[in-house]
Design a protein that fits this description.
Order of helices and strands: HHEHHEHEEH
Structural class: alpha+beta
Number of strands: 4
Number of domains: 1
Strand content: 15-25%
Helix content: 55-70%
Number of helices: 6
Length: 150
């Protein structure tokens, strides 16, 4: 009886640890792919407070991308839209780009004050931080470009 119990406990522990290893390994892999996709966009993200100051000084709006580094839909937006040359040009010409990571302190403070229901979420803000428009997410660069108009 003792041997059966110790075998069952050992199995539960083994599979439990294996499950945890797979879970955290997957998060690390998804995060790695997310960092790679973000880097490949070539967009320079500035902290939100700095983006607001720059927007006022440069008479631009802020394009706020609320993402999670492990989010596959966010990675798809980076790979298909934010990496597109025409989209990058439009963003750099008309906006100050900022990305808030869900798990960052800045991201958590923003989420506490605003209604964000999922990722990715993209907003256009004025230089005082007021929401001008929530951008409908499209993975088609042409459609996304159309969404960037106020």
């Amino acid at each position: 009886m003792k041997k059966i119990l110790s075998t069952k406990i050992g199995s539960v522990l083994f599979y439990g640890l294996l499950g945890l290893a797979l879970y955290f390994g997957n998060i690390e892999l998804q995060s790695y792919w997310g960092r790679q996709a973000l880097a490949q966009t070539g967009l320079v993200s500035v902290p939100l407070a700095d983006a607001l100051v720059r927007a006022k000084a440069e008479n631009k709006l802020v394009l706020l991308d609320i993402s999670a580094i492990w989010c596959s839909s966010c990675r798809k937006l980076d790979n298909t839209v934010f990496s597109d040359g025409k989209v990058k040009k439009a963003i750099n010409d008309r906006f100050i780009f900022t990305r808030l990571e869900y798990e960052s302190d800045e991201g958590q403070r923003f989420l506490e004050k605003n209604d964000v229901s999922g990722f990715p979420t993209v907003w256009i803000l004025d230089s005082s931080g007021g929401v001008v428009k929530q951008v409908n997410i499209s993975f088609d660069p042409v459609v996304f470009l159309g969404e960037l108009h106020e």
